[in-house]
Amino acid sequence: MILTDLEKNNFLTTLRSIVDNANKLYFHKREISISLFEGIGGLVYLNYFTGILCSSPFYIKISRDLILHILSKIEYAQINDYYSFANGLSGLCWLIDSFREKLDLDIEIDKEIDKTIADVAQYIYKLGNPDFLYGGGGALYYLAQKDQMNKKLIEEILTTFKRVCKYDDKGIRFKNNMLKDAEVNEYDIGYAHGLSGYITILSYIYSRGIISVKEMISDALKYIESYYNEHGDVCFHGSVLEGENSEYKVRLGWCYGDLSIACMYMNLAKYLNHDIFFEKAYSLALHTTKRSTPQTAGITDLNYCHGASNLYSARDGFVHRIARGS
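^ that's the sequence the OP posted. Answer follows.
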């Protein structure tokens, strides 16, 4: 869809109004959380990209000031969560690394902070919580993304991760940590909190030279693909109950179910450079288009994580990658 100049101006005016209101909430309540998902970490994104879209140095400066404020909180240890990606230190350090060049900031996360993140994450792993967003997995993702990746820290975390997983002839998997009433035989294969998300992280780590993770990738894929149902409306569920037939039909979204597995395959194709994964991603993404109404997709709102805007974003990503053939 091509917008007219009037439509563009109306959109940018509305966007600025939304961002201004969000900033007012923060500046009137300075004790608000600094976390990535629920605090001012999100305002960094909002202001930066508003500044880019509106060609406004004003919003860019706010984004820069927020990053420096977050950094000062970290340096003075004014943070409660030292491991999670959504609400803790690993997500904030990832945010700082991501925006350092964009905002022309001459800053760097201290290596001792990275070591602290790795140590605390391993403790959380040992408690049985490898969740990417709210467990130890966020540290693995953050440390793997660094320009100067510390292979020793990565390998130490992976060793601990293996210990909390279940291994047998079916493959590798770990318990569902997000559902309070999860069954003892329930394992998460989704993207946000489960095995398919880990496969993406592991494949990225493999692409950066730690080839020992290839066996873990193969074992995790073996487990996920053993639950493929080619004849159903839904090919993959968010969680599996071993030894039982699950009829739980998840909403269509990036975080679990068919679309999450398609995202996993697309990233496997990218990082492992195998065409077979691209073909699987395309086939599964195409299958999700059969759920084309709000009722069949289970979509009831515009939210990003579980809503309609997410589906549009995912579709746009697939279209662009398919057009490039990668």
